[in-house]
Design a protein that fits this description.
With 212 residues, the chain is of the alpha+beta class. The chain has 7 helices and 9 strands. It has helices at 2-16, 25-32, 73-80, 104-116, 155-173, 176-190, 194-202, and strands spanning 37-43, 46-52, 62-67, 87-93, 96-101, 123-127, 130-136, 141-147, 150-151.
Length: 212
């Protein structure tokens, strides 16, 4: 599958450059080792503070801070010092995985797997003859903090919003072990992909990470 080869090259290159979220590398390796499926963009879940020029203007937005773990109050306060223009939001987002399946049956299986793992926003769609499954959870938080460099949230409100955002992130990341186990079962069902191991050897992936 040419598309999977390209996706694996992209993943392994990003891993060597330190651009892949460390806490989901083992899971991404597992998924991509399965015959007939592969990942594209994925995220282990994050919390951050973002500036948006206007509501919904995502391409022009600017992260003041973005971490894939819980954020502390001092980190948030320091990041807010750099606010300049636009709407300021605290955002907490759950893990998300985009997985491509080679056929409809595998896409349905991935959809069932995501839901069974507690990722209740899991969906799939057909894009350019590809079956793309988005494994996604429900824990999203967007809390307004200010505008145009002016922080309108009190310290008490910021602490409260951080507490909720961190709690949601912790809860959503807590489903990752279940997702891992379900993909291990899927691998037993579908088998392993030799292309994955061929490219992993070529990129020296096993020198730093344990292959599934």
């Amino acid at each position: 599958m040419k598309a999977k080869r390209e996706a694996l090259v992209s993943l392994f290159t990003a891993m060597r450059e330190g651009k892949v979220d460390e806490d989901i590398i083992d899971l991404l390796l597992l998924i991509n080792s399965i015959r007939g499926i592969y990942t594209t963009s994925s995220c282990s879940g994050r919390i951050g503070i973002i500036e948006e020029p206007a509501l919904g203007a995502k391409p022009l937005s600017r992260w003041l801070i973005k971490v894939h773990r819980e954020m502390t109050f001092p980190e948030a306060k320091k990041a807010l010092e750099n606010a300049k223009e636009g709407l300021i939001f605290l955002k907490s987002q759950p893990p998300i995985f985009h997985v491509v399946a080679e056929d409809l049956e595998k896409a349905k299986r991935l959809h069932e797997l995501g839901l069974a793992s507690g990722f209740k926003y899991t969906t799939f769609k057909v894009i350019s003859n590809r079956y793309l499954v988005e494994i996604n959870a429900t824990e999203y938080l967007t809390a307004p903090l200010g505008r145009d460099g002016r922080v309108m949230a009190s310290d008490d409100y910021l602490r409260f919003a951080l507490e909720i955002g961190n709690s949601m992130l912790r809860r959503s990341k807590g489903r990752l072990p279940r997702l891992m186990k379900n993909f291990e079962k899927l691998r037993e069902e579908l088998g392993e992909d030799e292309l994955f191991y061929e490219l992993a050897r070529e990129f020296g992936i096993s020198e730093k990470w344990e292959l599934p």
